[in-house]
Design brief:
- With 71 residues, the chain is α/β, with parallel strands linked by helices.
- The chain has a single domain, classed as Rossmann fold.
- It is 45% helix and 20% strand.
- The protein contains three helices and three strands.
- Strands 2-1-3 form a three-stranded parallel β-sheet, sandwiched between helices.
């Protein structure tokens, strides 16, 4: 069975750790990014089935990440 990959983006390490652990426990492959810049870097070098991102981050927020990804 295929393991779906998720990119989890948040500048709060407690969120990425807790949510990432929960998702991995459900069988997903989770990659975390601690902000928008890192997320964009990861998206340039890999593909993900799903991106879950915090909207309120700086200097690149979640919308900026998605705009760059869909660009």
């Amino acid at each position: 069975m295929r393991k779906y990959s998720i990119l989890l983006v948040d500048d709060d390490p407690l969120i990425t750790k807790g949510t990432g652990d929960d998702l991995e426990g459900e069988g997903y492959e989770v990659t975390t990014a601690d902000g928008g810049e890192k997320a964009i870097e990861l998206l340039e070098n890999a593909t993900f089935d799903l991106v879950i991102t915090d909207l309120v981050m700086g200097p690149i927020n979640g919308i900026g990440v998605l705009q760059e990804y869909c660009h």
